[in-house]
Amino acid sequence: MKEFDIAVIGAGPAGCMAAIRAAELGKNVVIIERNEGIGKKILLSGKGRCNITNSGPLDAFVEKFGKEGDFFRSAFFSFFNQDLIGFFESRDLTMKRERQNRIFPATDSALSVVKVLKDVLSKNKVTILHKSRLSSIKKKSNHFELQINDTDKISAKKVILATGGKSYKETGSTGDGFNIAHKLGHTIVRLKPCLVPLKTKEAWVKELQGLGLKNVRITFRTGKKKIASPIGEIMFTHFGISGPLVLDLSGDIVSALKKDEKANLFIDLKPALQTEELENRLLNEFMDKGSTQINNLFKVLLPIRLIPVFIRLLKMDPERKASQITQKDRAAIIRLLKAFPLTIMGSLPIEEAMVTGGGISLKEINPRTMESKIILGLYFAGEIIDGAASSGGFNMQRAFSTGYLAGEKASNA
Ligand SMILES: Cc1cc2nc3c(=O)[nH]c(=O)nc-3n(C[C@H](O)[C@H](O)[C@H](O)COP(=O)(O)OP(=O)(O)OC[C@H]3O[C@@H](n4cnc5c(N)ncnc54)[C@H](O)[C@@H]3O)c2cc1C
Q1: pTM above the 0.85 mark?
Q2: Whose Cα sits closest to atom 51 in ligand 1?
Q3: C-alpha–C-alpha distance, residues 130 and 165, integer Å
């Protein structure tokens, strides 16, 4: 049986960084990866451009992870965004900043990120066992025995489990790590889809498939709970809605939905205008163009594809003239502009979510080391750990930061 100081399971950003750090500290490291190559999810990330981190402050990162955020503070503190940028830039991969402080490689290619990781792993002489799927871990008195592909076994003094979540299975993250950790005695906080499109009851969304709405705000309401977004972009799909605003709120919406099935989402199509301003604008518009039909009149207010649906919801005759619009009609138009309603029925399944929420319970991991409090010598890194952030580079940084900390502590301890 081959013996290693440290076995890292999974060659995503968390596993690669953990292996690199441990190897830099002189350890004999092996990565066990079920795919042929490394970083398959990195290649998909940021629409193939990899939004690798965010240049915001540490507190902003902590906030993005919500109630789980504080747990990641030590990991971010040990290896943060500027360290990550430095890691790549010192290896000739320059980074650039885009809107909302999102950091991307200047090459606009996730492949260049994977190439650097591959190169650094190789320079540090990390052994990578490709096409090797870990099926179980056994803790022996002073080492671990790892079963691979049900045929091979290796032994390691320490193990870092970085198998990711349970989303986008084709990338290799099928949730194996959760089962393996559970068998070792760990609690798995209920998994849920995060950064996921939502399904609506209204079938007419199909008519609007592909239509993006910029500069809108969404507000989700269920029972007493209200979740409002900032101003941004959404998109209609054949089953419901997606786009940045929807994806970012989706984790909270999915959690809220479990408790109360009936949920409404309202789109404010004119968030920059107050009711009174809208009223004045409509009044002027309608007075100027008295003989124009409302379906034409709405072209100054709404994207053309949205107009038929909008008029149907108003229950108005599309050929009605502006001069025939009453004050009551105007009030109804304004209500619909400020709160265009949709009924949320749920989300796409976890497999189609960009990030998995839930995972190894934070109560069972030491935040300063990423070591299991249940099995000493076992460490966790990346998305396998409970918690998820909205889009913007935060999830990738969490993977690199926890990977770095786990690699370092597994080497020192
Ligand atoms: C489409 C998409 C786009 C995204 N874009 C961004 C973005 O731009 N910015 C951002 O911050 N985040 C983004 N994310 C999220 C981000 O990619 C993940 O949070 C991050 O990759 C998690 O890293 P990880 O190393 O924990 O897990 P993963 O990247 O999922 O890696 C886990 C690895 O473990 C391997 N593995 C699993 N089980 C086993 C086993 N039993 N044996 C051996 N190997 C195993 C898998 O094959 C995989 O290689 C995106 C996600 C998706 C799906």
Answers
A1: yes
A2: 354
A3: 19
